[in-house]
Amino acid sequence: MMKIAVLDSATLGADLDLSPLGELGEVKCYTHTTADETPEHCKEADVLVLNKVKINKSTLPDPGSVKLICIFATGYDNVDITYCNDKGIAVCNVVGYSTDSVAQVTVAMVLYLANNLRAFTRHVSSGDYTRAGVANYLEPTYNELRGKTWGIVGCGNIGSAVGRVAKALGCKVLANKRTPSSEFENADIDTLCKESDIITIHTPLSDATRGLIGKERIALMKKNVIIVNVARGAVTDEAAIAEAVANGDIGGFGADVYSAEPFDASHPFSAIMHMDNVCLTPHMAWGAHEARQRCLDEIIKNITAFTCGEKRNRVD
């Protein structure tokens, strides 16, 4: 019987029923797997299912019977594909399962920041609204999005979904992507940074995109710009972002992704995370229940295809 090891089930959500994997083989579930624990947790497994666990020569020097790695995500930068090729290990990801989930959270972050909701909800929850005896409270000022320019950095499935919502809200949409968008107006990255009132980031992390939004491009932006990053933390220069927020050079900042996850007290965002114009979430934008269920369904199909000698969602 095939043996399946789920290496970090805690990242998949307690509400997700993993029992269908049991129809494919014997399943062992580990809530977490550290680098030191990886060899033991992978021991005797034929298939690994993982979300964030790193697999490479250092963490798994002897892959043993591992024949297939199924990544519970679209991005696969945590798995060394070259190493897996050398060891004859197939690698599958899942594409497109979280488009609606990430787009929904992206737009929610933009609206939260654009409407200054933290300040307004605190005014009520603190009791200030009751004590003031005034029916309306309109500080800080907020503005309508209609007529604003919304820049999409990385206009694939998720970026395009966000762009369509932005258009529905009355925004002009600028898209920056490697192959020009046929749906939105295209712009180079510097033009997008100069002209946008809102910038949402959806591009994959690569050598070309690492540090894409740093000091020089922040200096091009409008002072009241709202930036939301739901791609990868390292696509931005996080120290430069934090400095710009602290200095009032960015109107609002939201992020669901970080170069270190979870980040510790030394991370630049620790100094700004309590500010009213900052919205930080714990890498949850991909994880609506429906999205995770779709991902699991696709992984089951990937494993089934592999056992039948077929290639499906392969990235190796």
Q: Could you give the order of the helices and strands?
A: EEHEEHEHHHEHEEHEHEHEEH
The CATH superfamily of the largest domain is known as NAD(P)-binding Rossmann-like Domain
- Work out the number of β strands: 12
Strand order of the largest sheet: 8-7-6-9-10-11-12
Question: Low-confidence runs (pLDDT<50, min 5 residues)?
Answer: none
CATH class of the largest domain: Alpha Beta
Shape designation? elongated
Q: Mind telling me which CATH architecture of the largest domain this is?
A: 3-Layer(aba) Sandwich
Overall tally of domains:
2
Mean pLDDT: 97
Helix content: 25-40%
In DSSP terms (H or I, runs of 4 or more residues), the helix count works out at: 10
Structural class: alpha/beta
Biggest sheet, open or closed, and with what strands and sense?
A: 7 strands, parallel
- What's the CATH topology label of the largest domain? Rossmann fold
Radius of gyration, taken over Cα atoms and rounded to an integer in Å:
22 Å
Q: What gap, in angstroms, lies between the N and C termini?
A: 25 Å
Strand proportion, as a percent range, falls in 5-15%
Can you summarize this structure?
The protein is of the alpha/beta class. It has 10 helices and 12 strands.
Structure in words:
- The structure is a single chain.
- By secondary structure, this protein is an alpha/beta fold.
- It has two domains: 3-97 and 289-307, Rossmann fold (3-Layer(aba) Sandwich); 99-280, NAD(P)-binding Rossmann-like Domain (Rossmann fold), CATH 3.40.50.
- It has helices at residues 38-42, 81-86, 99-114, 117-125, 128-132, 157-168, 189-195, 215-220, 238-246, 289-307; strands at 3-6, 26-29, 47-50, 68-71, 90-92, 149-153, 172-176, 185-186, 198-201, 226-229, 252-255, 278-280.
- The strands form two sheets. A seven-stranded parallel β-sheet has the order 8-7-6-9-10-11-12, with helices on both faces. A five-stranded parallel β-sheet has the order 2-1-3-4-5.
- Helix 8 (215-220) links the parallel strand 9 (198-201) and strand 10 (226-229).
- The model has no long low-confidence stretch (mean pLDDT 97).
